[in-house]
Design brief:
The complex is a heterotetramer of chains A (243), B (425), C (296) and D (350). Chain A has 9 helices and 10 strands. Chain A has 243 residues and is an alpha/beta fold. In chain A, a hairpin with a 2-residue loop joins strand 9 and strand 10 (212-217). By secondary structure, chain B is α/β, with parallel strands linked by helices. Chain B folds into 2 domains: 5-164 and 303-378, Response regulator (Rossmann fold, 3-Layer(aba) Sandwich); 168-295 and 396-409, Rossmann fold (3-Layer(aba) Sandwich). Chain B is 43% helix and 18% strand. Chain B has a 6-stranded mixed sheet, sandwiched between helices. Chain B is globular and about 65 Å long. Classes of the chains: A alpha/beta (243), B alpha/beta (425), C mainly alpha (296), D mainly alpha (350). Chains in contact: A-D, B-C, B-D, C-D. Chains B and C meet through helix 1, helix 4, strand 8, helix 10 and helix 11 of B and helix 1, helix 4, strand 2, helix 5 and helix 10 of C.
Chain lengths: 243, 425, 296, 350
């Protein structure tokens, strides 16, 4: 089962003189969990944004499940089956948790109320379903962010630091949920700084440095790779060197 | 400034303000109380709808002075005499804010809530056109001392009357006289504000020139708050003998200032409405001299009658004593509107408050009325384009002359002074 | 006058009209760009300045120009006192701070306009000047009205002075730091309250000064402010939000469009063309005419 | 804490507001009260009540795009005016009854709003606000120079029996217009309630307002949804414009297209409480009554103008979530004190 689900080919995004993504060619297989790492400013979030239609790439293509989705509007990409979360998990204000879930544009055939209830139960936040979403804890907000994406029933989910700022117990729970979802067939690509977290969950890791895709491999392969060490040591954030 | 300070909130207003607070949010309750329907029978009560704020507050202020002065004077003289007893006059005001919708509500308030005997009209044609239908529906008499727009009379409202001849007549007759001054003008540049009254004025000026066979170099309408240097530059390059301008005081001031700044100097400027107001003279700060205008009334004018005020001069003195400013014809016509009611009520012979049938009778009396006042003879047309407009009072061309920019009559009439023409600074 | 002279005169008129708009736009651009305040009262500072001219000038020998420094100082102080209120409603945990500031200043504008109308009445008042009257004729080109020329020069000079202050002085640096990031500015030890108040005070003073000149050109009246509020808004978006020198360009564009439309297309069309142009320009160039503004 | 007996009036009120069906109850009771109200009122107070109803509806229509969708529409009044003129043109030029005019005005403004919305909604924040403002000014100027609108002479509507086109309505009087406004306003409130508070559509609108990127990533087509909200809110303003024009009988570009129309809608929605159903209702009633009654009852002074200005400032200072915030108990003595303290700190300017 090594069929490629999401493939970028020479994906390039420039901001004026700065090239944030430099000809990134990268494929994610169906059913895998892919980690995406790199020093700060290496272009990880930009890559997500280019993939999901928030930025129009200057060059290159994005193919999802055989369909060229380059330049599509983000909501269309989402409906096509690529969900994503943001680094900052902000619920929509003035609404309950459940209403946040119902806001998602689900496929017409789905009974959204039923689905929302299932997902909330799956994530163990159904007990606060009718509370004001703005009153949730940070970790609960992350769960809600994940829950909203699940409403789309996506084949592939891009997660931007799913456990950042969440207490360890809740972080473990989130990872547990991800694994379970992966077992059911969902493909993931995860930006994560916490290498302990990454180690537990990913199948393979892609490393970005200065906008370029420099290495891909298993966690062990990558963590011993010289280019990766250099990339991290070369940057100011030496605390982020993988061990 | 002084007259405004005088109008600080008095006790009656204060009571109303207090009542207002109560009325907020509980319209229903306030409605049942009827908000001011507690009128006694010892006074004639008139509702005044005029614009004290909004775009047309200049004129609104002038009409208010006219109505106020009439009320004050008649009450000092004991009031309106009906069948041997005298009844004082009470005015109740509403600010239409130059807004037809507010004006319509004000009219309704006067009739159904304040239960006035008659209404003195709003300033500006837009508000008049919204108020008049309500007068029709309620069959309440309504005289405006300021409505000069021809549109109002075209609508043929039975209950609405006006003491000022429509501007179509005023501007045209004055313009024709000014065009006859020696040396006779061969060309004229007509500008105006693109507003209902001003456009009617400018087009009457244009018609006058065309009637006299004078070449009209341009007929140039502009938004009121435009920068008038463009008009002045265009006019200057056309080099007309005379410049005619239809607008309100604000636009005259802006136009003449721009002309001064650009050294544009035709033989004369004729502006209508309002060269004879202190607003205009103050606005130009001494540069108003020589400007031509049109009027139907001046403090110095001789008129045949003198009901309430002995003569134009008497009225002017009373006005100056009260407001510290010379009255212009709108103010005079507003006071005259009151005098017309006074005469009509005397003829009607009914004590206040007037019943519906008495109000209808009052309207019939107004249709046939002939009053001789300090302002001139007032009658109302019974048919035609000027239905219910007083076209009897004759218009005159004036010019601001002398050190204090006194308006004097010029042109062909017997009492006319020599015009400063071509105008020299 | 031949028609080329009408053309050159119209261009002169347009440029000088643009100068008037610049005097209103400069301060406004500052409070928008630096304090992120959209001040609905901007036109009312113009009105208050013009009124100050009309009332004070007769006391100082009928010379409106002498009122200028007084107007600046007086409204600088007014601005310094008002700014904390605006600052307060546009910060903290309030929802939609942009709108809060807008509505607060809308109330402020209503208060100012209503107070002047109630106290001084509706009359138009002259702001006298003996120093500047008439125009200087330059053969072949046209007439340069003295008072308008001085106004335009003052407008441009105050822009230059502003730029100098912002980029060459400590206070200016502090203000720019605040514009970049309030929290960092605070960490750097900048008393942001003081500098924000100063910036707003300078804006109020300058706009009122512009008002004195506008009073000299036209006259003073309680309702005159509204149109300048509109123009101030249009000035800063055409300039490109946050890009101060763009104010000159937008002044020129607005002034010329107005003047040339009036002469060559018809006076009635002036504002239709002007507002239509602003709308279309915003759609096609939201980053300002020069493309140097920030796009929200 | 506390038993039933300890509840204060405010607590009870909040409890009532908190009930699921409270809104429906309030709406039902309100509708009944409104329906019988004119029988208790004089003609004048009926007019005032119908004016208040109209402004509630207008404020609510602005609240849809401004409060729920978060787009500061400074040109909303343009649709009020265009609705008025289209209704008038249909009645005067085509000699059709009012109902036809109103329907055509609604359809016309739907198309206009769609065409305008496509490019304009690409802008956001202050840009959108100023673009819509310029658009509205341009529309006003256009109406002043067009022949068909009557230009600067304005337009007088046909009145009298038969002009309404509604069976059983003779000469349309205050009662007729009252019920017309009542139907429009209650319809607007009901629409706002079901659209924005009780449907996925409304959740999506709020999602876009709060976090447009996140909403997009959840499959929500923000462009399409914003355009829908814009068109709906504009059509409502147009319907009120047409109804009001027929009621006033005379319209002029300087009146029905005045920027103050938009300003009032914004102030009402904001002071009442943005992005809520109750806010524009409370704001609309309060501001309209304050404005109208003060100009009518304090008719020979303009002192009410600065007072209204002060009121607006004080509300923004102390009740940022509007009057509805006060009713919800968000503006207690402590909050005011806290507010004053924070304000005082900002005076640290020496």
């Amino acid at each position: 089962m090594s069929e490629t689900l999401l493939q970028t080919d020479g994906l390039t995004k420039r901001f004026g003189a700065l090239t944030a993504n430099d000809e990134i060619t990268l494929g994610v297989d169906r059913g895998e969990i892919r980690g995406l790492i790199g020093p700060n400013g290496s272009g990880k979030t930009t890559f997500f944004n280019s993939l999901t239609g928030f930025y129009t790439p200057d060059e290159g293509t994005v193919t999802f499940d055989g369909t060229d989705i380059t330049g599509w509007e983000s909501h269309r990409i989402a409906r096509e089956g690529v969900g994503r979360t943001f680094q900052i998990a902000a619920p929509f204000g003035n609404m309950t948790v459940r209403q946040n879930m119902l806001a998602v544009q689900t496929p017409k055939s789905v009974d959204e109320h039923e689905r929302a209830q299932e997902i909330l139960e799956f994530l163990d936040i159904d007990h606060i379903a009718d509370d004001d979403a703005s009153g949730m804890s940070g970790g609960q907000k992350k769960l809600l962010g994940l829950g909203r994406v699940l409403m789309l029933d996506p084949e592939c989910i891009l997660l931007d630091e799913p456990t950042a700022g969440v207490n360890p117990a809740l972080a473990d729970r989130i990872l547990e949920h991800l694994r379970e979802l992966n077992d059911r067939g969902t493909t993931f690509m995860i930006i994560e700084h916490d290498m302990d977290v990454l180690k537990q969950i990913v199948d393979t890791v892609s490393v970005l440095d200065q906008g370029r895709h420099i290495v891909q491999g298993t966690f062990e392969e990558v963590s011993t790779d010289d280019r990766v060490r250099e990339a991290y040591l070369g940057s100011a954030d030496d605390d982020e060197v993988p061990v | 400034m002084r007259d405004n300070l005088k109008n600080t909130v008095n006790r009656r207003q204060f009571t109303k303000a207090a009542g207002l607070t109560g009325a907020l949010g509980v319209t229903g309750v306030a409605g049942c109380l009827g908000g001011g329907s507690d009128r006694g029978g010892d006074k004639f009560k008139f509702g005044v709808v005029t614009s004290l704020s909004g775009d047309l507050r200049f004129g609104g202020e002038v009409t208010r002075r006219g109505y106020d002065l009439w009320k004050k004077t008649i009450n000092e003289n004991g009031g309106i005499e009906v069948d041997g007893s005298s009844y004082e006059v009470e005015l109740t005001y509403a600010d239409a804010k130059s807004d037809p919708s507010t004006g319509a509500d004000a009219a309704s308030q006067m009739i159904t809530s304040e239960k006035v005997d008659a209404v003195l009209g709003p300033y500006s044609s837009n508000v008049t056109l919204a108020v008049a239908p309500i007068m029709e529906k309620n069959q309440t008499p309504h005289i405006s001392g300021s409505a000069e727009s021809p549109r109002i009379w075209e609508e043929q409202y039975k209950h609405t009357f006006g003491t000022v001849p429509t501007v179509t007549l005023i501007a045209r007759q004055a313009a024709e006289e000014i065009l006859s001054l020696d040396p006779t003008a061969e060309s004229v540049y007509v500008s105006g504000v693109n507003g209902p009254f001003s456009k009617a004025t400018a087009s009457a000026m244009r018609d006058a020139a065309e009637n006299k066979g004078v070449e009209v170099l341009a007929y140039d309408l502009n938004p009121s708050d435009t920068d008038w240097t463009s008009v002045v530059s265009s006019a200057k390059s056309e080099d007309p003998d005379l410049h005619f301008h239809g607008g309100h005081i604000g636009s005259h001031v802006s136009l003449l200032k721009a002309a001064d700044q650009l050294n544009y100097d035709p033989n004369g400027f004729f502006c209508h409405y309002g060269v004879n107001t202190s607003d205009f003279k103050d606005g130009l700060g001494g540069d108003a001299s020589g400007t031509f205008g049109a009027t139907v009334w001046l403090p110095s004018i001789e008129r045949t009658g003198g009901k309430l005020f002995g003569s134009a001069a008497d009225y002017a003195k009373a006005a100056r004593d009260e407001f510290d400013q010379s009255p212009d014809y709108t103010q005079a016509a507003s006071s005259a509107a009151g005098i017309v009611y006074q005469q009509a009520l005397e003829e009607l012979g009914a004590a206040p408050p007037l019943s519906d049938t008495e109000q209808s009778k009052l309207v019939s009396i107004l249709e046939d009325i002939e009053v001789q006042t300090f302002y001139g003879d007032v009658t109302f047309d019974k048919e035609g384009d000027f239905y219910h407009n007083n076209t009897t009072t004759s218009p005159l061309p004036v010019q601001l002359q002398g050190d204090d920019d006194e308006a004097v009559v010029v042109g062909s009439s017997a009492s006319a002074s020599e015009a400063n023409y071509p105008v020299s600074e | 006058m031949v028609s080329t002279e009408l053309l050159s005169q119209s261009i002169i008129n347009g440029l000088l009209l643009g100068g008037i708009y610049v005097t209103v736009g400069v301060g406004f651009a500052l409070v928008f760009g630096v304090l992120e305040i959209i001040d609905f009262a901007v036109g009312e500072y113009v009105m208050l300045g013009a009124f100050t001219g009309a009332i004070v000038a007769p006391m100082v020998g009928g010379e409106g120009l002498l009122v200028v420094p007084l107007a600046f100082v007086a409204f600088f102080l007014v601005g310094v006192v008002i700014q904390p209120f605006i600052h307060h409603v546009t910060t903290g945990d309030r929802p939609m701070p942009l709108l809060m500031g807008l509505v607060f200043t809308f109330g402020l504008a209503t208060f100012m306009r209503g107070s002047i109308l109630t106290i001084f009445g509706p009359n138009t008042r002259n702001v006298p000047t003996n120093a500047l009257s008439g125009g200087i004729e330059i053969g072949g080109l046209g007439t340069f009205p003295e008072v308008r020329v001085v106004t335009a020069v003052v407008g441009v000079l105050s822009l230059v002075a502003f730029m100098y202050y912002l980029y060459r002085t400590t206070g200016g640096t502090a203000i720019r730091a605040i514009a970049e990031d309030r929290d960092i500015a605070r960490l750097m030890g900048v008393n942001i309250n003081r500098y924000q108040s100063i910036a707003y005070g300078v804006y109020a003073g300058l706009t009122a000064t512009g008002g004195v000149f506008i009073g000299l050109i036209y006259s003073a009246g309680p309702g005159m402010g509204l149109q300048y509020t509109a123009f101030a808004f249009f000035m800063i978006v055409l300039a490109g939000l946050g890009y101060l020198p763009g104010i000159i360009i937008s002044g020129i564009v607005l002034g010329l469009a107005q003047s040339l439309t009036a002469v060559y297309l018809g006076g009635e069309l002036v504002f239709f063309v002007l507002f239509g142009m602003i709308y279309v320009l915003l759609l096609v160039r939201p980053e300002g005419l020069l493309g140097k503004g920030e796009v929200a | 804490m506390g038993t039933e007996n300890d509840l204060t009036v405010r607590d009870r009120f909040q409890a009532l507001l908190g009930r699921d069906d409270a809104h429906l109850w309030l709406f039902g009771i309100g509708a009944v009260v409104l329906a019988v109200l004119p029988f208790a009122l004089s003609t004048f107070w009926t007019r005032i009540a119908l004016g208040a109803l109209m402004w509630i509806g207008l404020a609510q229509s602005w609240n849809m795009i401004g409060g729920y969708a978060g787009y500061l529409d400074f040109g909303h009044g343009a649709y009020f005016g265009v609705g008025a003129f289209v209704t008038g043109i249909v009645m005067v030029e085509l000699e059709l009854p009012f109902v036809a005019g109103l329907l055509i005005a609604g359809v016309f403004c739907a198309v206009l709003a769609y065409v305008v919305g496509v490019p304009t909604l690409r802008l956001s924040g202050a840009y959108f606000a100023i673009a819509t403002w310029a658009f509205a000014e341009a529309i006003k100027e256009l109406a002043l120079i067009l022949e068909i609108t009557g230009g600067t002479y304005g337009m007088t509507f046909p009145t009298g029996p038969g002009t309404s086109g509604i069976p059983l309505v003779g000469w349309p009087d205050e009662m007729f217009f009252y019920y017309l406004m009542m139907v429009l306003t209650l319809g607007t409130i009901a629409l706002a309630y079901f659209l924005f508070e009780h449907s996925e559509f409304g959740f999506r609108v709020k999602a876009i307002r709060d976090h447009e990127d996140a909403a997009q990533s959840l499959g929500i087509d923000a462009t399409k949804i914003k355009r829908r909200v814009y068109v709906i809110s504009c059509v409502i303003a147009a319907l009120f414009g047409g109804a009001n024009a027929y009621y006033i009988t005379f319209i002029h570009p300087n009146d029905v297209l005045a920027p103050i129309i938009t300003d009032q809608m914004i102030i009402m929605a904001l002071l009442g409480g943005l992005g809520t159903i109750g806010g524009p209702i409370i704001g609309g009633v309060l501001i309209f009554l304050l404005n109208r009654l003060s100009s009518l009852f304090l008719g020979n002074t303009t002192i009410y103008l600065p007072l209204i200005g002060l009121l607006i400032m004080v509300t923004v200072l102390f009740a940022p979530s509007g009057v509805i915030g006060i009713l919800r108990g968000e503006v207690g003595r402590e909050d005011v004190k806290q507010n004053l303290r924070e304000l005082a700190e900002k005076f640290d300017i020496l």
